[in-house]
Amino acid sequence: MTIELIIFDCDGVLVDSEPLAMRVLINAIASQGITVTPEDAYRDFLGRSLASISTSLRDNHGAPLGPATLQAMRTELYALYRQELRPNAGLPDILGQLDIPYCVASSSTPERIHLSLELTGLLAWFAPNIYSATMVDHGKPAPDLFLHAAAAMAKAPENCLVIEDSPAGIAAAQSAGMRVFGYVGGSHAAPSGLQQAIKALDPDLVFDDMHALPDLVRSLRTKKKAR
User: Fold this and answer.
1) What are phi and psi of 183, to 5 degrees?
2) Rounded Cα gap, residues 73 and 11, in angstroms
3) Which has the closest alpha carbon to 195: 215, 167, 174, 168?
């Protein structure tokens, strides 16, 4: 099996940002008069762009996230990032062990992706190969972003491996015709019930230790789909 490119999601995979982002999002939704539990928020919004979340809130509650709310969220979230954001365990150590190209493809804005990677010491490992959902018409779970990243890196979709932590991202990778590993090692995985949701989508492999990724990638080239 030929794997020529690894496409990393950012939030929850490279950086332990999801609990911070979800805290801000739930507070913003509450300010609109809508109550969403953390369990429902993780289920419905994890891995999706703010534009997609806003559309969902409009369709289901009649209250999208307006420009003022979005700006307030960015300000609050970036302040939290500067205080608390950390890379996930195993990073950046494992990046130097990968023997094929890799990039980032995230639902976040370019500004947020760059800030996340910069604050966690990962930016130099990925720049300039950073791709955002703002660059395509449809965000995850549509395949557009991953297909865009593969094209930009001059790799065929069937030769790409995606590392994702969200059901929306796994569905997007599968729709793109790519291999996908579900990562459940982030601090949000257990409280959100993420592992069960990811396993239900039948990715090529589910793992919780980023240190193991280089060996898992190598084994994928010689083994059939792992369970």
Assistant:
1) -100, 125
2) 16
3) 167
Q: What is the pLDDT of residue 225?
A: 47
pLDDT in tens, 7-21: 999 999 999 998 898
3-state DSSP helix/strand/coil % of the chain, to nearest 5: 50, 10, 40
Helix/strand/coil for 77? helix
pTM: 0.86
Residue 165 tokens, joined? 């932590």
88 DSSP assignment: P
Q: Position 79: which residue type?
A: A
pLDDT digits (tens, 9 = 90+) for 172-191: 999 999 999 999 998 888 77
3-state SS of 42-68 is HHHHCCCCHHHHHHHHHHHHCCCCCHH
DSSP assignment of 145-213, as one string?
HHHHHHHHTT--GGGEEEEE-SHHHHHHHHHTT-EEEEE--STTTTTTTHHHHHHHT--SEEES-GGGH
Distance between CA atoms of residues 101 and 139, nearest Å: 23
Structural domains of the chain, with CATH: 5-16+86-220 (3.40.50.1000), 18-84 (1.10.150.240)
Element of type H or E holding 6: strand 5-8
65: left (phi over 0), alpha (psi -120 to 50) or beta: beta
Q: What pLDDT digit, counting tens, does each position of 143-175 carry? A: 999 999 999 999 999 999 999 999 999 999 999
Work out whether the CA dihedral 80, 198, 225, 207 comes out positive or negative: positive
SS3 105: strand
